[in-house]
Amino acid sequence: MKTKIRRTTGNVFADLGFAAEDAEHLKVRADLMVALTKLLDARGLSQAEAAKLLGVSQPRISDLVCGKIDKFSVDTLISMLAAAGAHVSVSVRRGRAIA
């Protein structure tokens, strides 16, 4: 069997077949979740300590570290990052033309 290799679009969600708009939302949320998880890991916080810092429950932190993307909005993730002392900035680039 020959394996077919395709070049990535740079968005795994688009590559998996999600609609363009959904793929963009998922990628933004995933990027924010990764940044928050890395920040908490770098501080060596337990889930209970992270929950206290961010003002959420420990099960909420468990959802974060388990990657339950459907449980988090962009707004919630930005608020959590801000509570952790992070600065969030947004970059917008021109996309490909829509037919």
Automatic annotation (TrEMBL):
Family annotation (InterPro entries): Cro/C1-type_HTH, HigA2-like_HTH, Lambda_DNA-bd_dom_sf
A molecular-function term among this protein's GO annotations: DNA binding
Entry-linked PROSITE patterns: HTH_CROC1
The protein's name in its UniProt record: XRE family transcriptional regulator
Species of provenance: Pseudogemmatithrix spongiicola
UniProt superkingdom: Bacteria
Location of the HTH cro/C1-type domain: 36-91
Gene3D superfamilies: lambda repressor-like DNA-binding domains (1.10.260.40)
Pfam families: HTH_37
